[in-house]
Design goal:
It comes from Oncorhynchus mykiss (Rainbow trout). It is found in: Cytoplasm, Cytoskeleton, Cilium axoneme; Cytoplasm, Cytoskeleton, Cilium basal body; Cytoplasmic vesicle; Golgi apparatus, trans-Golgi network. The chain is an alpha+beta fold and 1180 residues long. The protein has 23 helices and 60 strands. Helices cover 22% and strands 30% of the residues. It has a five-stranded antiparallel beta sheet with strand order 14-15-16-17-18.
Length: 1180
């Protein structure tokens, strides 16, 4: 027989309910794979894979308004381990940085007492991974050290700041959404506050001038309906003084966010449209508008892996929109001959929710690692978990293609893969002008759909009635479950298993608010509810008996209950034999619980009951002993002969018969004698004895003059405690016949309950303003909870759940299981007993997490991979830590899974942002250079392979990698972008910027056309005309080039850098232009120009200088420098840098991959670098 074990140690926890309106924006999904959500003053930590709440953090006194997980954009080691850090901010201005595993606070930050408007961790973590930026109302931004709570700097602005957004491509750029417009900061730094007030821009409608209003070609029909609406909502960003219209437009702006999918693009969200802005020309290049009958937007989250938008609508529907751009030939001189529009097609949508006055969608978050999972928080406390799925199908008009690859490498013939691993494996890259589509063998047409994969439900609205099931004993240990019954305001009874904190049963029992619950066994309970009184003050009473295993309910009092005084309380006797039902203006009723029969309805002159309690003493043991002796005697009597029987005295026979009759037929339970006490309105104590159907009146004790009206009674052992409406507690020692009164000065004693357990004399007391725990042996208070002092919520009901833990229902809609000290419900997550195993390496000790990662990446001691973790001797690791990976075990054990695929997969499993970025770029360029070498195309180190040699499954690196992409693809993307800017231009400023960009891109003919469009009344007409002539007549002769170069140099020296660079580009001196840009600190602009204008050798020189600059101490972005060197194929240099930065694990794996792909020769230097790959585990 398998031994059965019961976990009797319950963790402190919080069962949460409906959200406060201030919690609306308090939700975040971190790289760690967990969701944090604010609920009143608590923070829930949710595992989205198993739909479990695995931690509740409680320290805030006010409602939580923001939560943010720390970023994981750094190399992890023993000194910088995987850790669960979360920042939370409340409406009183306090910020707490948490160690989520232990449930403790790293630090607390307080600057002002107003709600924090916004906050976020800095995403560049080479210098420090502890920096947190926060908006303190009305107009301050403050940079904090989130580890120590130190303020690094503070900066104020002229307008009230509503929110901010970091530029994901440049850490020095920050955009603030203010009450009047947008402020762009271009000198953001962790070392000092921004020097200026930033560049202020305002949102306004365009005023098209005749010179820039393009007529609709006759061949095209006039725009109507939705198309006309799209034209109306086009807006631009202007530096002009804001008009009333501009202010109105800005007031409607719900959200501002940089696009992480492409550089220098921003998103503005309005209730009925989303505007995509190109910040280089400060104008709208795309609009997502809702039809008149459509549901307005609440929120939008732009994706990084693809140019796609997750949109949340007011009906709770989540939609996914994926961009595509109509492709015009990049060589076309007049882009207006083709339709140029940035369109976001609706590709999938989930079901809406039923929206009511109290049920509204609040916020949506998406998984930052894979971007194919979304979570929706609803005001009633629900969290809906949606997963995006792709299925092969012909979608018709605008097909969507998925790459046939896995983790950045071509899919082997028999290779196993994880379906729908991430968004970029589900949706292929969008094509750019002139690019050839991938062959059909490398892509397949798909459709997307949302699937609801998880749902977390909260408690309904308070009030609640609590009752814990009977306590654990040696007799019930084999089948005991710690169940808590919660009666709700809507008539249902929720039964929670407190071991896991999960809902065990949801029973619809009553039609009105549940007032009380009493358990009659481990698997059944009685509950009562009362309706709203009618004009006569009478109600409908509902008293139901519920059997948990079957869910069967029946009316315990039968047809009784209509139009009678309300039930005030019910009490079940200690042995669960009898039930007393107390009414407001009606004598009490006494019932037999086992048979469901009414034993006695008291007379009309019966005193009014104010408090009642059953005694724990009874005669069951003596009855059972008598019954056993009687049966033994009866057995002996039946074996006697007739003569012997006749000699037995008649008194013995009568004794046997009496014992048998007490057993009620032998097969029935014994009716033991039990008694209860109650008090009347005068404070007199009555004693009643019940045995079978016999009810006897006992002694009466006169009222105590020091006590007011008795409100409640508790009885355990020889101790009887009475509480009154004035806050007095009276402790009676029945054995010593002593009483002691204690005035608590807390007001009305609402409820008192003794703790379970033999000899445990702790008493839980509930007042209107809180609760206390008393030790009745010593008659002193153990702990106290008071509104305004310890907590900010009112207690509604109390009970004990174990001998040392209490459970409290509170007005904020939560139920808390607390230690006897009643401090915090936070606990150590690694000590919790979860129903489903959770995959989260962040919960492990640092050494164990890093060992597990190494084990999944490389097993050099074996020819084949294994998932037997016992081969690694680390005490903190066992099979339970790897069991959650069962669904992908076949992929991890697949011999066709190559090293690069494994590194990418493990970086996703660990939510390691730095690893994922490194291996994505490394995998692409390792395969790219290996393919070039295989085709015998000589590629010097430091130069990217030629266009024709690109044979990786995705063809090129995604554009969100920006200047790390191949030059040919980057250049085509920029040409397409400037053509779109050209079509959307609506002013002379826009036209000028487009012409400048075209000149830098080498598109001189089109640039000349734009320069000649300048109207004669424009002050720049003469300059633009001369510039057009210059561009047209430039020759490659020596004297003209020398003159232009001299002029360009003088212009640069005199502060006209952009104009000088343009002139250098006109005479094909872009390499010199890049050097000047770098000299003047325009490193990003120099890299951009090198990518679009220089040949591979020259471009490589520029980018290498940029990498050196990134490594300098004042910049300290070595991680970015490594990515730049990877894109150049400088693999030896990358290996050396990884080793010098002490990234030994990454260096070993990288060298191993380089040797396998043949892009690096095995020699002394590579052997030194890769020595650690021969070790079982590296933990540096």
């Amino acid at each position: 027989m398998i031994p059965y074990s019961v976990n009797i140690k319950l963790a402190a926890r919080t069962l949460t309910g409906t959200l406060n309106l201030q919690n609306k924006t308090a939700v975040d999904w971190g790289w760690q794979g967990l969701i944090a959500q604010g609920c009143h003053s608590s923070i829930l930590i949710i595992d989205p894979k198993t739909s479990q709440t695995i931690q509740v953090l409680e320290r805030h006194k006010a409602n939580v308004v923001k939560v943010k997980w720390s970023r994981e954009n750094y190399h992890h080691s023993l000194s910088s381990p995987y850790s669960l850090r979360l920042a939370s901010a409340d409406s009183a201005g306090k910020i707490i940085v948490w160690d989520v595993v232990s449930g403790t606070a790293h630090c607390e930050i307080q600057e002002h007492s107003k709600p924090i408007q916004d906050m976020d961790w800095l995403w560049t973590q080479d210098a420090s991974r502890d920096l947190l930026l926060a908006i303190h109302p009305p107009n301050y931004i403050v940079l904090w050290n989130g580890d120590t709570g130190t303020k690094l700097w503070k900066k104020s602005y002229a307008e009230n700041i509503l929110s901010f957004s970091f530029d994901p491509f440049d850490p020095s750029n920050l955009a603030l959404l203010t009450s009047e417009g947008i402020v762009f900061i271009s000198d953001f730094s962790h070392s000092k506050p921004p020097g200026s007030g930033g560049k202020k821009v305002y949102i306004a409608s365009p005023h098209a001038s005749p010179a820039h209003t393009k007529p609709v070609p006759a061949a095209l029909p006039a725009p109507t309906g939705a198309k006309k609406a799209l034209n109306k909502v086009k807006v631009l960003i202007t530096n002009e003084k804001p008009t009333a219209e501009a202010v109105t437009l800005n007031a409607d702006c719900l959200q501002l966010s940089y696009l992480p999918s492409k550089r220098n693009h921003m998103l503005l969200l309005y209730p009925r449209e989303i505007l995509i802005l190109d910040l280089e020309v400060s104008q709208t290049v795309g609009v997502v508008a809702i039809e008149r009958s459509g549901v307005p937007f609440i929120q939008v989250i732009p994706c990084a892996q693809r140019d796609a938008l997750f949109c949340l609508h007011e009906n709770g529907c989540i939609t996914l929109r994926v961009s595509w751009q109509s492709c015009a030939d990049s060589g076309q001189l007049n882009p207006e001959q083709s339709v140029q529009e940035l369109v976001y097609d609706l590709r999938s949508q989930c079901d809406a929710i039923r929206v009511t006055k109290t049920v509204r969608p609040y916020r949506m978050v998406i998984c930052p690692v894979n971007e194919n999972n979304a979570a929706l928080t609803v005001s009633d406390g629900r969290v809906m978990l949606w997963e995006l799925k792709a299925h092969v199908s012909n979608s018709g008009l605008s097909p969507l293609y998925a790459p046939v690859a896995f983790c950045g490498s071509p899919l082997g013939q028999n290779q196993k893969k994880i379906q729908d691993l991430s968004l970029n494996t589900m949706i292929g890259q969008s094509l750019v002008s002139g690019a050839d589509p991938p062959p059909p063998s490398l892509q397949q047409e798909v459709q997307l759909k949302f699937l609801l994969t998880g749902l977390l439900s909260g408690l309904p609205l308070p009030p609640f009635a609590l009752r814990m099931c009977p306590p654990l004993t040696t007799k019930n240990i084999n089948h005991y479950q710690p169940l808590l019954a919660v009666g709700t305001s809507n008539g249902s009874v929720l039964v929670y298993n407190l071991t896991s904190g999960l809902l065990h049963k949801d029973l619809s029992v009553h039609s009105c608010e549940v007032k009380g619950i009493e358990w009659v066994s481990l698997t059944s309970f009685l509950s009562f509810a009362t309706s709203t009184p009618n004009n006569a003050g009478l109600v409908r009473n509902e008293l139901q008996h519920v059997d948990l295993p079957t869910g069967r309910c029946f009316a315990f009092r039968g047809e009784q209950g209509n139009d009678e005084p309300a039930i005030e309380m019910m009490k079940v006797s200690h042995l669960k034999q009898y039930l007393v039902v107390v009414f407001r203006d009606k004598p009490l009723e006494l019932w037999d619980v086992r048979t469901g029969t009414l034993l006695r309805e008291m007379a009309k002159n019966f005193p009014t009951v104010t408090a009642l309690e059953w005694s724990p003493s009874h005669n069951l043991k003596s009855l059972k002993k008598k019954q056993l002796l009687a049966r033994e005697a009866m057995a002996r009597y039946t074996t006697l002969s007739d003569t012997e029987q006749s000699s037995v005295e008649s008194s013995v026979i009568s004794l046997l018969q009496d014992a048998e009759s007490k057993s009620e037929g032998g097969g029935q339970a014994i009716s033991a004698r039990e008694h209860f006490v109650f008090t009347d309105t005068d404070g007199q104590v009555y004693h009643i004895t019940v045995e079978g159907n016999t009810v006897k009146d006992g002694a009466r004790i006169p009222p105590d003059g020091s006590m007011g009206s008795i409100a409640c009674i508790a009885w355990k052992g020889d101790t009887l405690v009475l509480g009154d409406v004035d806050g007095n507690l009276n402790f009676w020692d029945l054995k010593a016949r002593l009483s002691r009164g204690i005035p608590t000065h807390r007001g009305w004693v609402k409820k008192i309950r003794f703790a379970p357990g033999k000899g445990n004399q702790k008493l839980l007391v509930m007042y209107t303003d809180g609760a206390e725990v008393w030790d009745t042996k010593e008659v002193n208070m153990v702990s106290s909870l008071r509104i305004g002092r310890n907590v900010n919520y009112r207690i509604l009901d109390i009970d004990w759940c174990t001998s040392d833990k209490v459970v409290l229902a509170s007005e904020d809609g939560c139920i808390r299981v607390l230690e006897m000290a009643m401090k915090s419900a936070s606990y150590r997550m690694d000590e919790q007993d979860l129903t489903d195993p959770v995959w989260c390496p962040y919960l492990l000790l640092p050494r164990a997490a890093l060992t597990l990662k190494a084990f999944l990446l490389l097993q050099p001691w074996s020819g084949t991979f294994t998932m037997d973790i016992t081969q690694v001797y680390v005490s903190a690791l066992n099979g339970s830590h790897i069991n959650p990976l069962d669904d992908m075990k076949s992929v991890l054990l697949d011999p066709e899974l190559n090293l690069l695929q494994r590194c990418l997969l493990v970086s996703r499993l660990f939510g390691d942002e730095s690893d994922l970025q490194f291996w994505t770029v490394a995998a692409h360029y390792l395969q790219s250079f290996a393919q070039a070498r295989h085709l015998s195309v000589p590629v010097p180190e430091g130069q990217t392979p030629a266009e024709g040699t690109q044979a990786t499954p995705q063809g090129h690196l995604d554009i969100y990698h920006d200047t790390l992409c191949e030059s040919f693809y980057f250049q085509r993307f920029q040409l397409e972008r400037v053509h779109l800017q050209e079509v959307k231009r609506s002013s002379y400023e826009h036209t000028k910027k487009c012409a400048d960009q075209l000149l830098l891109l080498g598109q001189t003919d089109r640039a000349v056309q734009l320069l000649l469009e300048t109207s004669a009344d424009n002050p720049s007409y003469y300059c633009d005309s001369l510039k057009a002539c210059l561009v047209t007549t430039i020759t490659s002769s020596g004297p003209s080039q020398s003159t232009i170069k001299l002029v360009a140099t003088n212009m640069i020296a005199n502060g006209k850098l952009a104009e000088g660079v343009q002139l250098l580009c006109l005479i094909d001196k872009a390499a010199d232009a890049c050097r000047y840009l770098q000299t003047y600190g325009e490193w990003n602009r120099a890299a951009w120009l090198a990518k679009v204008r220089l040949n591979p050798a020259e471009s490589s020189d520029v980018l290498k200088r940029w990498a050196e600059h990134l490594c300098s101490p004042q910049v300290n972005q070595k991680s970015k420098a490594i990515l730049v060197l990877l894109s150049l194929g400088c693999f030896h240099k990358v290996g050396e840098m990884l080793q010098s930065m002490r990234y030994f694990d990454r260096a070993a794996l990288f060298i191993e991959a380089c040797l396998k792909y043949g892009v690096m020769e095995a020699n002394d230097s590579t052997n030194i670098l890769s020595k650690s790959r021969h070790h079982t585990v590296w933990l540096c």
